[in-house]
């Protein structure tokens, strides 16, 4: 039996599915100040800058390198 999966099973998800998946696995903060404190404390353990950001999908706040990745893409 081959370990290779047929290409039709590996089709990329739609942009909406990828976006929803990026929110689904993250902790949602309702308090932006708390999210910023967590980001600040987490920053020293990551190689990329960490920040709190408002999620346009769930309306909550997440912590990650989200904003920094978006800024790099625009350059």
Summarize the structure.
The protein has 75 residues and is α+β, with helices and mostly antiparallel strands. The protein has three helices and two strands, in the order ααββα. The protein has helices spanning 15-24, 32-42, 66-74; strands at residues 51-54, 61-64.
Key features?
75 residues, two-stranded antiparallel sheet, 3 helices, disordered C terminus
How does this structure look, described?
- Residues 1-26 are annotated as: Disordered.
- With 75 residues, this protein is an alpha+beta fold.
- The protein has a domain at 27-75.
- Helix content is 40%, strand content 11%.
- It contains three helices and two strands.
- The protein has a two-stranded antiparallel sheet with strand order 1-2.
- The longest helix is centred in the middle third of the chain and has 11 residues, at 32-42.
- Residues 70-75 have low confidence and may be disordered.
Largest beta-sheet details: 2 strands, antiparallel
Helix content: 40-55%
Mean pLDDT, to the nearest integer, reads: 76
Catalogue the unreliable spans.
70-75
Helix segment count? 3
How are the strands of the largest sheet arranged? 1-2
Oligomer: single chain
Radius of gyration: 16 Å
Q: In one word, what is the shape?
A: flat
Strand content: 5-15%
SSE order: HHEEH
Straight-line N-to-C gap: 46 Å
Derived structural class: alpha+beta
Number of strands: 2
